[in-house]
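Example record for the data management plan.
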Amino acid sequence: MKDTQAVNIPELSGNLDRALLEDAIRQFGTPLYVYDLERIAEKFNQLKQAFGGRKTLICYALKANSNLSVIKKLASLESGADCVSLGEIKRAIMVGIPKYKIIYSGVGKQDFEIKEALSLGILFINVESKEEMLRVEACAKELGIPARISVRVNPDIDPQTHPYISTGLKENKFGVGIEEAKGMYLYAHNAEFLEPIGIHFHIGSQLTKLKPIAESTQKIAKLTHSLIALKMDIKFFDIGGGIGITYSDENTINPYDYAQAILEELRGLDITIICEPGRFIVGNSGVFLTKVLYQKENQGKNFVVVDGAMNDLIRPSLYEAYHQIVALKNPNTESASIQADVVGPICESGDYLGKNIVLPVLESGDILAVLSAGAYGFSMASNYNTRPRCAEVAISSGEIKLVRKRESFEDLIALEKDYL
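Corresponding structural encoding:
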């Protein structure tokens, strides 16, 4: 964002200046998500170039932001897709991501989802347990289609991130231990309808330390060497995603250093590296805009009540996650300031976007920008309190485009009213 009066995190310097944001609000109202498509392309290319010279497939993690226009932009850059539902697979195919670049992850796949994924001919299915692998085998046998699979191996290494987004420890629900993984690969190698072609790990999200990633890569690389020694044709080494972004003052991982740490541990393996970034690409490529309704004071405590709420952006309530919040006010009016909680209209004490935020003195109608909201914002939104989900717009080359219209009350009840 060019306007440093409105935004002061260098990582967020992009193409969403104040004039564009205000224009988007005039056209589409608030609350509103705004995405910078050029910034998205820049972040994708940073990671692609970091692995330059090696066989690499970057599979964008749709769970971070599954808006079709966002995915289509990434498809134009030759991205693959990491999907955790059949719906995400269909979104990826709809915007032109080739089926052979789509992988299907997640712990709770149902038979009908497995069968459709196999019928579509995606690259492979990441299996999370022996029980799931046996279900995949049964589905493949029923269809008469061998199932290409990868096993998600849990390296049991502390990712040093928030416990809710940690996925690589033995107490997490994801993946299997190394010894169990060996048994699964041996079974799959000898099974008629299973084709183990990949190996996968993912230790968590919002990672800011390189050491856990390198240690995990080393562990899983050792396992891969042993599988290849047993004549298994492992073609893909899936390192997951999880590179952190700047929300406040985090020291984040440089993409080049990230790639080099992984490549160092993969010496001697002629294998295609799969990376599954989500937040890294879209997190700081989006903002959430919300309008001030009232400012109130309660026995010395200040509150700014806005029209956006936890149903629009749940990360602060769910994770106690921090997002910088800034006012889109004219700098001439920003001399005085207050410290306040920014809260929404939801009937929950946990409905807040930020606590103890320093802001200029505000008036009804002023606009606040919640930064770093491109990932896990709209994709985790809900209709709690019968609140319609907000609109989404994308900006590219200075042009504003509506990419998802605001829901109406009629949209919310469309699947109910015929059953009255």
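Summary line stored alongside the record: The longest strand covers residues 286-298.
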